[in-house]
């Protein structure tokens, strides 16, 4: 499985139903990566391992959210959802985090995105 194939499958699988609940109102087909960072980072981690990285989203000097992306085992940073942010939103910091275990608030969205990506990859094989 190539990184490019997984990236394409992820981008084709995003929807409002795979979006973080707090971002659903801002999700549009014109900004499909909105609210997809955590689930996307986890699915990419499923395929390639490496580290999960988290930064803070800052608006007007205040943290309003967190942003997730990946550092692959070779050190390459992959952030498939950075384009979701407007010019007033800034991501600062980069802290490696441990993958969540147990139940999380994003379990449903993650499971749906992971299943869509797996299905798309199977279709293209």
* CA gyration radius, whole angstroms: 14 Å
Largest beta-sheet characterization? 4 strands, antiparallel
Mean pLDDT: 96
Series of secondary-structure elements, N-terminal to C-terminal: HHEEEEH
Roughly what fraction of the amino acids lie in strands? 15-25%
Secondary-structure-derived class: alpha+beta
For the largest sheet, list the strands in their spatial order.
3-2-1-4
Regarding quaternary structure, what we see is single chain
The 3D shape can be described as globular
> What is the total number of structural domains?
1
Number of strands: 4
Q: How far apart lie the N and C ends?
A: 9 Å
Low confidence ranges: none
Helix content: 25-40%
In DSSP terms, counting alpha (H) and pi (I) runs of 4 or more, how many helices? 3
InterPro entries: YunG-like
Pfam families: YunG
Protein name: Nuclear transport factor 2 family protein
Organism: Aeromicrobium panaciterrae
């Amino acid at each position: 499985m190539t990184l490019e194939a997984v990236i394409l499958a992820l981008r084709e699988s995003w929807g409002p139903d795979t979006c973080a609940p707090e971002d659903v109102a801002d999700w549009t087909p014109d900004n499909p990566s909105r609210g997809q960072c955590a689930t996307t980072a986890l699915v990419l981690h499923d395929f390639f391992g490496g580290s999960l990285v988290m930064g803070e989203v800052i608006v007007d000097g205040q943290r309003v959210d967190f942003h997730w992306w990946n550092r692959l085992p070779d050190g390459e940073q992959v952030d498939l959802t950075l384009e979701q942010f407007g010019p007033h939103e800034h991501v600062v910091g980069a802290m490696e985090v441990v993958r969540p275990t147990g139940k999380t608030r994003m379990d449903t969205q993650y499971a749906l995105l992971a299943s869509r990506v797996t299905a798309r990859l199977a279709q293209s094989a």
